[in-house]
Amino acid sequence: MDLTDNAAEAAFRREVRDWLGEHLTGEFAAARGLGGPGSEHEGFDVRLAWDRLLAEHGWTCLGWPREFGGREATVQQQVIFHEEYARANAPVRVGHIGEELLGPTLMAFGSPEQQRRFLPGIVGVRELWCQGYSEPGAGSDLAGVATTAHLDGDQWVLNGQKVWTSMAHLADWCFVLARTDPEQQRHRGLSYLLVPMDQPGVRVRPIVQLTGTSEFNEVFFDDARTDAANVVGEVGAGWQVAMGTLGFERGIGTVDQQVTFRRELAGIIELARENGAIDDPVLRDRIARAQVDLEALRCTVFRTLGSDGPPGAESSVVKLLWSTLHRELGELAMDVAGAGGLLAERGPYELDAWQRLFLFTRADTIYGGSNEIQRNIIAERVLGLPRESRP
């Protein structure tokens, strides 16, 4: 695996770096570093404007086929873009759920009509999306969803509740996994529906997190409606589509994550040097271990992206690695900060970046499929071990 740039890739890296340097000015320069886990409330309007500027210049949906509005960038070019974007400390994107999750799902499973209707809005960042998977009684056990949908003429009528729905309070649409056949159980009888959020039957209630912010939400469907044509794939075969989305979620976007993690570790090292924690041999050893783990994650991500075909169960390895590593980075940050990390920056509850990192990363090993679930997937579907006994 060669991770160095060839001549064409080096030229593309210069193009990305030069464009970011030219356009991250004025209000966008002030937006550097805004957003991210625990800070998604920061500068939403300017970040949305930034995303739309990226779209105008062809920097959204890089890897998509040209027929769908992308640039057909190679995997290495996409890696380069994410690396340079993170190194420039550019604002965290607001359209990533549509671009990285739903868009690839529609290209793989959607009808031509759905692709024509929804993909341009994702490319242009004109419509924002959220993901309606988890429920109070069906989090990592996604097959247990209880939200229902039944046909009423030419529309689906939805009833139920979703939870931990990232950015639902700002989304225009939600892709929802719902039970459309009440006679079926578990993975069977589920359908993947595209549901407009701006309608009387949809209510969003923010969840206040440990960080004091509310990027997660509860979403209630009370006779909410969507057109019959807005089911992706076959009716009753939504499980396959939903698993495809999860595979895409652990794809190219993880490159941006691991570069961001490197920047966070660099900040932790700087803090350790400032307050003398670097002299503690135990903390020094943990910092070294974090650097080794980051390099292992980088190689694993690139190897996964270089495989042929859509993401499969192997993507669970990447999810398990990055979520555990990020949680440990948060714990390392607090240990380096020492007793001072126990004090809020200012009242009543203003946290510094390290405190937000620590508190938010407690969720990393839970959302998107808990570590326990990922280990079961790896054991059963990758290694071929016997299935865990279930009641």
Total of domains:
3
Helical fraction = 40-55%
- By secondary-structure content and strand pairing, the structural class works out as alpha+beta
Shape: globular
Q: Give the strand order, joined by hyphens, for the main sheet.
A: 1-4-5-8
CATH topology of the largest domain: Butyryl-CoA Dehydrogenase, subunit A, domain 3
What's the main sheet like?
4 strands, mixed
State the CATH superfamily name of the largest domain.
Butyryl-CoA Dehydrogenase, subunit A, domain 3
| Rg from Cα | 21 Å
Number of strands: 8
| Average pLDDT number | 89
Please report the distance between the alpha carbons of the first and last residues. Answer: 44 Å
Q: How many H/I helices?
A: 12
Order of helices and strands: HHHHHHEEEEEEEEHHHHHH
User: Roughly what fraction of the amino acids lie in strands?
Assistant: 5-15%
User: Under the CATH scheme, which class of the largest domain?
Assistant: Mainly Alpha
| CATH architecture assignment of the largest domain | Up-down Bundle
